[in-house]
Design a protein that fits this description.
By secondary structure, the protein is of the alpha/beta class. It folds into three domains: 1-46, Arc Repressor Mutant, subunit A, CATH 1.10.10.10; 55-150 and 259-291, Periplasmic binding protein-like II (D-Maltodextrin-Binding Protein, domain 2, 3-Layer(aba) Sandwich), CATH 3.40.190; 156-255, Periplasmic binding protein-like II (D-Maltodextrin-Binding Protein, domain 2, 3-Layer(aba) Sandwich), CATH 3.40.190.10. It has helices at residues 7-14, 18-32, 48-72, 95-106, 123-129, 165-169, 173-178, 194-201, 218-223, 233-240, 271-291, and strands at residues 37-40, 43-46, 82-87, 111-115, 134-138, 147-154, 156-161, 181-184, 208-212, 229-232, 245-248, 257-263. The chain is elongated and about 75 Å long.
Length: 294
């Protein structure tokens, strides 16, 4: 209820009837000596006491889930839990579809939720509170307080329209920096993205003239404009045969993009969470092998 900020939405999420959730809220209010949720306009907001309860409550619930999962063991064929993965669509466009398909095939009774990484989300807090089980993405320096598993590395390239002048004549560093660039909207508060973080270390800055939160739409925008997308080769290759675009080498040397999965200590020993992380690793490995020349 504290995260949904709605009795009716909390009831739907927990698979309970709303009167039962309202009764539980009344008991919690009596125990806490605080209203916990109060009306604000058409919705409800948590009190200061309620906000202080969110993290310890999540810790208790997640610890209980890990405890009973380990006691019962995890059998993917009979398990009925929910897997929650936070990821952006700047990954290989086949990654999430193949992950969902694999989970549906191997754990047919389980549910899977894909959560976006956006400027409004705090993935570190979501992992700590148990709102998501694992986060998949790329960072120059992943947070040190989270567990990390490497998935694959990728070369940084540029995607441009087939008729872009750079396709015919190439470009210098200055020309690349001055070109109109399109970049994804930051995936979390304060994020600049690995491309711009690296440029900053070189004392350079590119000319970003467009931003889009939907990474999957950017290649089509590039195909019909003079915009430049700088990202991993694996992502670009998925669109090279579908759109009038070309992949060009970047005139600035970038370190290889490293993609990781991150998870919190609270799920590190969970049998079901370990199974999920192995499936993520399997899908990443399969996509990597698919790209390697025979």
């Amino acid at each position: 209820m504290l995260t949904e900020r709605s009795v009716s939405r909390a009831a739907i999420r927990m698979g309970m009837h709303q009167p039962a959730v309202s009764a539980a809220l009344k008991r919690l209010r009596d125990l806490a000596g605080d209203p916990l949720l109060v009306r604000s306009g058409a919705g409800m907001v948590p009190t200061d006491t309620a906000l202080r309860m969110i993290e310890p409550s999540a810790s208790i619930l997640r610890a209980a889930e890990v405890l009973f999962t380990d006691v019962r063991g995890f059998d993917p064929q009979t398990a009925t839990g929910t897997f929650r993965v936070a990821a952006s669509d700047y990954l290989d466009p086949l990654f999430l579809p193949q992950l969902v398909a694999r989970i549906q095939e191997q754990a047919p009774l389980c549910h899977i939720e894909i959560h976006p990484l956006s400027a409004a989300s705090d993935y570190q807090a979501q992992l700590a509170q148990g709102a998501v089980d694992v986060v998949v993405g790329n960072w120059l320096k992943p947070p040190e307080d989270l567990h990390m598993g490497r998935l694959f590395a990728d070369e940084v390239v540029c995607l441009v329209a087939a008729g872009h002048p750079a396709v015919r004549r190439g470009w210098s560093v200055d020309e690349w920096l001055a070109a109109g660039h399109i970049a994804p909207t930051p995936t979390h508060p304060g994020a600049r993205g690995v491309i711009d973080e690296h440029l900053e270390t070189q004392g350079l800055r590119r000319n970003i003239t467009a931003r889009c939160p939907h990474f999957g739409l950017i290649p089509a925008m590039v195909a019909s404009s003079l915009l430049v997308l700088t990202t991993g080769r694996q992502y670009c290759e998925r669109f090279a045969a579908q759109l009038p675009v070309r992949i060009l080498a970047c005139p600035i040397e970038f370190p290889r993009l490293m993609y990781y999965q991150l998870w919190h200590e609270r799920t590190h020993a969970s049998a079901s969470a370990r199974w999920l992380r192995e499936r993520i690793k399997d899908v990443a490995s399969a996509l990597k092998k698919e790209r390697q020349p025979e």
